[in-house]
Write a structure and sequence with these properties.
73% helix; elongated; mainly alpha; two-stranded antiparallel sheet; 552 residues
Amino acid sequence: MNFLSKAWHWFLDEKNRGALVAVGAGVAAVVTALWAVFKYARKRKDTPQNAFALNRNTRFDPDGAVQYIERMDGGSQTINAGPSAEQIQAIIRPHLAVHRDQATQIVELSRQLGISEAAVGGFFATLGEGEVPPERWAAVLAQIAQRHLSLLERLASLPTEDATIQKKTQAAREALELGDHQRAEKLLEECEQLDLEASQHSAEDAKTRLCRAIETRAARGELAMTRIDYRAAAVHFGRAAELAAGLESEVQNRFLHERGYALYMQGTERGDNTAIAEAVEARRDLLSRLSRDRDPLNWAATLTNLGNALARLGQREGGTARLEEAVEAYREALKAYTRDGVPLKWAGTQNNLGEALRNLGKRERGTAKLEEAVVAFREALKERTRNRVPLEWAMTQNNLGSALLALGERESGIAKLEEAVVAYREALEERPRDRVPLDWAMTQNNLGTALLSLGEREGGSAKLEEAVVALREALKEYTRDRVPLDWAMTQNNLGSALERLGVRESGTARLEEAVAAYREALTVYQAAEADHYVAGVRENLQRAELLLDERR
C-alpha cells in the first residue's frame, strides 16, 4: 500500500487523531476543498432517463489561464492557474474561520463528503503514485474528487435490462467506493465488451447497446482521469469517439473534446511535448467539425483550447511560429466570446491572448507585441474586477505587471517599470501569504525583480533595498525542499539585487551575500541538470567573486 494511503488509514484510527490537532489546518483545508467539490457536484440535478441515450448537448469549457514568474536569468516559467486550486482556497476560507478542533472537523467533513474512507485513501495514494508535488495537492485532489463523483453518477445513469451487466456495473461502483480502481476498470471493460457483442447480434436493440458501450468506454476514460493517467484517458476517449462515428456529430465531438483535454493535461502536467502536439492536432480536428454559426460557444471554446495548447508548446520550443498561431486562435475565439455575451470567458481569453503576445514579444525585437499584451491584459481587467473575481483579478494584475516589466526593460525611462511595481503590489492585496502562499511568493519574486530593474535606473539604493526585502519574503514560501527550482531562481534574483547594492555601497558585506546567494542557486540548478540556468548563474557568480576580490 502506498505511503499516503497508509497515512490516511493511520489518521482514521481514533487514538492517532489527537496528535494531529496542532498540524491539522493544512489537512483540513484539503478535506474541506473536497467537501466544496462534493457540494458543487451534488447541486446538479439528476435527470432520470426512461430510455438510454447519449448526451449530445455538451458545452465545452476553455482549459484555464496562465500567469508569470519573472526570472533574472533570461527565462520565464508559466504556471497553470486555472480555477481549481485558488478558487477552492477561496471557498474554504469561511469554513476555516469557524473551526473548533481541527481533528474533529476533518472527521466530520470526511463523513459529509459521502465518499468512503477507502476511496479518499485511494485519492491520497494516487497523489503519491503520480508524484504530485505537495503544492499541487489541493488542486489535484479536487480534480480527483470531482471526477470520482462524476464517474459514480455516470455509471448510475447507464440503465440496462441485462442482468449480468447490471451486476458488473454495480460491482464497479462498489469497487470505486473501496478505492479499487483496478477492479473497477476490469469490470467496466467486461461490461463494454458484452454490450458491443450484443450490438452486433441483436438488431432489435443494437443502437441502445452500442450507445451504452460507448458511454462505458467514456467512463473508463473518466476513471483514468481520476487516476491522473492522462495518456490512458486519451486512448479511452478516442475509442469512444471512434465507436460513435456513425451517430450524431455532437456525440462524437464530446469525446473528441475530452480526448484533447486529456492529451493537454498529459503534456502540461507531465512535461510531455509530444502529447501537447497531439492535443493541438486533436483540437484542430474538432474545430473542423464545428461551425461558428451553429455552435458559436463550443467553436470559441475549442479555439481557446487550441490557443492554449499552441501557446504552451510555443513556450517550450524555440522560434515564434507556435505563439503566432496561438495569438491567431485567441483572436478568432474572441469573435464569438464577446464581452456582452460571455464577459468572463471573454476576459479569460483576453488574458491568454496577453500571455501569448508577451511570450512572443520577449522573442522579438521592438515593443509592438509587448504593447499589445498590455492592452489585452487591461481589457481582461475590465471584466475580471476585484469585487467580482478577486483571484482572477490578482492573476491578471500579475500578468500585466510582467508585460509592463518586459516593456519597461526595453524602453528608456522608468514609467513602465513603476507601473509594473504598482500592478504587482495590487496583485498581492488579493494574494495574502496565508491563503495562497505560493502565488504570494511568486508575486513577491516578480515585485522584487521589477524593483531591481527600477533600482538599476535610479540613483541611490532605496529601490534595490526594497527588491532585497521582496525577494527574501518570497523565499519564506519558495523553500528549497518545497519548490527547489523556484527557490534557486529567487536566490539568483536575490544575488543580483545584492550585487547591485554591493557595487553602490562601500565594504564587502553585500557582495559576500550575493556570492552566497548565487552559490546556493547554482547548487540546485546543477543537481537538476538545468544546463541553461547553470551557465547564467555561473556567469553571475564569477562576476560577483571578481568584484569581491577587487574590493578586498
